[in-house]
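The instructor's notes for this session suggest beginning with a concrete chain rather than abstract definitions. Hand out the sequence below and ask the class to guess, before any prediction is shown, which regions might be ordered.
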Amino acid sequence: MLSYIKEDIKSVFKRDPAARNTLEVLFNYPGLHAVWIHRFSHKLWSLGLKWLARFTSNLGRFLTGIEIHPGATLGRRVFIDHGMGVVIGETAIVGDDVTLYHGVTLGGTSWKAGKRHPTLLNNVVVGAGAQVLGPIEIGESARIGSNSVVVKDVPENATCVGIPGRVLLQKPVVDEALSENRKKIAQQYGFDAYAVSVDNPDPVANALGIMLEHVHQMDSKVEEMCKVIQLLGGDVCTESIPKLNVADFADTGISPVLKKAQVEAFDPHI
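After discussion, reveal the predicted structure:
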């Protein structure tokens, strides 16, 4: 039990930048207190002391505002951040290194006995107010967006948002050279507004990112062709493509300083 507590405290520093020291985490993080109380009530439940387990669970709910049924199974280093209003049902299974934010419900959709609550595999993150319902499985390292209502399985490494929850992105297995090229383009542009990174969950931004990358590569090829033609005596590509102007970004909402830095980072031929 003591080793679990030490692990839990260490995990907080990795996931909450507001955590300043061990003493503060130990006494002022109700999400941890709820998990620790649950481990005790879960032990009572497994020993057949159902009433005492439920009483202990309700005591934890009164003290922390977090309701975890003593029958639920929680893995190691589970972190409930803020925590108020979190509800975890009886047959829910939560893996290791899972993060839940306030208002999350791991609930059921049926009154029938048996497995009726979700299973969250390792490293899942569930945003504030999200409802994950039914005997579904959330794959490893998946992300559930805030206020989403998820009633279907979510694959690993995917991002799921909306009502009902829909998968927006599942990280693909990409060629290393292509991935490195995208990183270079993202660094060149100084921001990720066009989803050059595969980590961006916005499908529209991802589509724009793919188009931007394609245009960038086509421009490079055209530039190389022009240079070769000029070396052969051809009179082509004598005029430069107009550069982007800061004024073009006047209505984007991006700060003037950032706009200027971004435009200066652009390839002059784009």
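Then share the key points. Residues 203-231 form the longest helix (29 residues). DSSP finds seven helices and 15 strands in the chain.
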